Automatic annotation (TrEMBL):
One of its GO terms (biological process) is SCF-dependent proteasomal ubiquitin-dependent protein catabolic process. PANTHER family: F-BOX FAMILY PROTEIN, F-BOX ONLY PROTEIN 31. It comes from Myotis lucifugus (Little brown bat). The lineage of its organism: Eukaryota, Metazoa, Chordata, Craniata, Vertebrata. GO terms for cellular component: SCF ubiquitin ligase complex. Pathway: Protein modification; protein ubiquitination. Keywords: Ubl conjugation pathway. Residues 352-375 are annotated as: Disordered. Residues 62-108 form the F-box domain. This is F-box domain-containing protein. Pfam families: Cyclin_D1_bind, F-box-like. It comes from the Eukaryota. SMART domains: FBOX.
Length: 480
C-alpha cells in the first residue's frame, strides 16, 4: 500500500486528502467509483454463491469487571447483600482477596443489622467485621424479629434483636397493674455472643441459679427452638403461670429440659383505606394482667387476634354492620343496645345458614384487597359522640375514652385449653380514636379496652399478604 508522505496522518495515500485536492475533478470521481464497484462485485459474488462476503463489523473492545481498579471494586462489593459475597469470592483469586477488606463487611454490618460498634472494641477482642458477620449475623439472622411461644399452655412473645455485638432474645412479661397505654415490658431470655477467635455461643439468661448458662438453638423455616438442662426456670414465673408452663417444662419419665419452640410473627400490612392503622394492641382481659392482640383488616371485616395468654380468642368485626350512635343515648340503656345487637346477630346467623353471608373463610380475605374505604372515610369525618359504659357492664378500665367515632357489630370467639367447642359472644365494637378501641360482650356484660402498643419492632414485615394470612392461621392453631 502506498503511504502518504504528507502530515495529514491518515496513513494510506488512497485516502489522503492532500492528493485528492491535487487531482482534477475527473480523476477524483474515478477514484471514488472504484471502491463502489469493488463492493458491488463482492455483493454480486455472495449472491451467486461465491466466496466473497461483506466484512463483519469489528468486535467491541473487551471489558471485564476484573479490569476495574481495586478501590472501585471495594465500593461496588460494599453495595451488595452480604449473603451474595461468599459466592462472589469464588469467582477468582482477585475477588477473593478483595473481599477480605474489612470496610466491605463493616458497611454490610451497618446497613443490614444497624451495627455501629467502634472498630477499637473489635480490635480489643481480636475480631474483624468480616468475622462478626460470618460467625454471628449470618448464622442467626433468621431468628431476628417477633415470635410467639408455641405451646399448649401459656403463649407469650419473644423479640430477637441486635444489641451491638450481641443478639438478644427479649421475652414479654405482662405486669398486673399497667394501663393499656404503657410500654410493653420485656426481660432477657437468651443472648448470642462472640468470644475471641471462636464461634458464637448461646447463653440462657433465665433462672435464678447458674445464670447465664449454656443453651442450644435449632433454627428452621419460620420456627426455632431453644433447649437447656437447667430446671429452675419455673422459680421466676408468677404463681398463676407455673401450672401451665409445668406441662411443657416437666414431662413424666424424662429429664427436666427447658425445650421451647417459637413461631414467627409478622405485623399486619396497612392500607390507606383501613379504618385505623393496624398493629399490636394491649388489652386487659382479666385480673392476670395485660394481654397482646393483633388488629388486622380483611375487606369487609376486621380481626383482633389474641397472641398471648393461655386460651385462644379472636374478635371478628363486621365493618359494614354499623350501629347508629345518634347522640350517644344508645349507651345509656343496656336493654336497647342488647336488642339492636341481638337482631343483627340473628340476621347474620340466618344469612350464614342460607349462604348469603360469608362464613368460615370470610375473615381471611387478603389485607391487600380493601373494600371498606367508604366506611373508613365516613368514620374519620364523623364527629365524636359521647360514650359512657351502659349500666350493669363491668370493666377493669375506668380511665377509658369518653368519646367514640363509630360502633359495629362483632363476635368474640373463645376456645380454652382442652376444649374443642368454642364459645361465641356477640357484642359491640367501639372505635374511640386512632390508638384505642373497645368491645362490649353483651352475654358477659364485660367491656375490654385496647390501646396501641408504642414499642417499635424490626424484621416484622411479611414478605406477602398470603404469608401474613398463613401466619395468622398458624398462631391460632394448636402447636405441632
Amino acid at each position: 500500500m502506498e503511504e502518504c508522505t504528507c502530515l495529514c496522518g491518515l496513513g494510506s495515500s488512497r485516502g489522503c486528502r492532500c492528493r485528492q485536492e491535487r487531482q482534477g475533478p475527473a480523476e477524483t470521481a474515478t477514484a471514488e467509483e472504484k471502491p463502489l464497484e469493488a463492493d458491488a462485485a463482492a455483493l454480486c459474488c455472495a449472491g451467486s454463491g461465491g466466496i466473497a462476503s461483506p466484512r463483519p463489523p469489528p468486535p467491541p473492545p473487551h471489558c471485564s469487571l476484573q479490569d476495574l481498579p481495586v478501590e472501585l471494586l471495594v465500593e461496588i462489593f460494599g453495595l451488595l447483600p452480604g449473603t451474595d459475597l461468599p459466592s462472589l469470592a469464588l469467582a477468582c483469586t482477585k475477588f477473593h482477596h478483595i473481599l477480605h477488606t474489612d470496610s466491605i463487611w463493616r458497611r454490610r454490618c451497618w446497613e443490614e443489622f444497624g451495627l455501629r460498634e467502634n472498630l477499637q472494641n473489635l480490635e480489643t477482642m481480636g475480631m474483624s467485621y468480616r468475622e462478626v458477620y460470618a460467625k454471628l449475623f449470618h448464622p442467626y439472622r433468621g431468628i431476628l424479629g417477633l415470635w410467639q411461644l408455641d405451646t399448649e399452655g401459656y403463649k407469650t412473645l419473644l423479640n430477637v434483636v441486635v444489641d451491638g455485638l450481641l443478639i438478644t432474645g427479649w421475652t414479654y412479661g405482662p405486669c398486673l397493674n399497667l394501663h393499656v397505654d404503657g410500654p410493653m415490658q420485656f426481660k432477657p431470655s437468651f443472648r448470642i455472643c462472640l468470644t475471641e477467635r471462636k464461634s458464637a455461643t448461646v447463653e440462657c439468661m433465665e433462672g435464678r441459679h447458674s445464670r447465664p448458662h449454656s443453651r442450644h438453638i435449632q433454627i428452621g423455616k419460620n420456627r426455632f427452638s431453644t433447649q437447656c438442662n437447667k430446671t429452675d426456670h419455673l422459680k421466676d414465673l408468677p404463681t398463676r403461670l407455673r401450672e401451665d408452663w409445668a406441662r411443657v417444662l416437666v414431662q413424666k419419665d424424662r429429664l427436666q429440659y427447658d425445650c421451647l419452640t417459637y413461631r414467627r410473627l409478622y405485623l399486619p400490612p396497612s392500607h390507606p383505606d383501613d379504618l385505623i392503622r393496624p398493629g399490636l394492641f394491649q388489652g386487659k382481659y382479666h385480673r392476670f394482667g395485660l394481654m397482646i392482640a393483633m388488629l388486622s383488616f380483611h375487606g369487609k371485616y376486621a380481626r383482633v387476634t389474641k397472641i398471648t395468654g393461655n386460651f385462644t380468642q379472636t374478635l371478628e368485626i363486621h365493618l359494614m354492620r354499623r350501629i347508629q350512635l345518634g347522640d350517644g343515648k344508645i349507651f345509656r340503656n343496656f336493654n336497647t343496645l342488647y336488642r339492636v345487637v341481638l337482631e343483627i346477630d340473628e340476621q347474620v346467623i340466618r344469612e350464614q345458614e342460607d349462604g348469603t353471608e360469608e362464613s368460615g373463610g370470610h375473615g381471611w380475605q387478603s389485607p391487600a384487597q380493601p373494600s371498606v374505604g367508604e366506611s373508613g372515610a365516613v368514620a374519620s369525618e364523623e364527629q365524636p359522640v359521647k360514650f359512657v359504659l351502659p349500666v350493669g357492664v363491668s370493666s377493669r378500665h375506668q380511665n377509658y375514652p369518653r368519646t367514640c367515632r363509630m360502633c359495629c357489630y362483632g363476635v368474640d370467639t373463645v376456645t380454652t385449653c382442652g376444649s374443642g367447642c368454642p364459645w361465641r359472644f356477640p357484642g359491640v365494637f367501639i372505635l374511640f380514636d386512632e390508638n384505642h378501641f373497645g368491645f362490649i360482650s353483651l352475654e358477659t356484660k364485660y367491656f375490654i379496652l385496647f390501646g396501641r402498643v408504642q414499642n417499635t419492632f424490626q424484621n416484622v414485615e411479611a414478605p406477602s399478604p398470603q404469608a401474613f394470612l398463613k401466619m395468622l392461621k398458624n398462631i391460632q392453631s394448636r402447636p405441632v
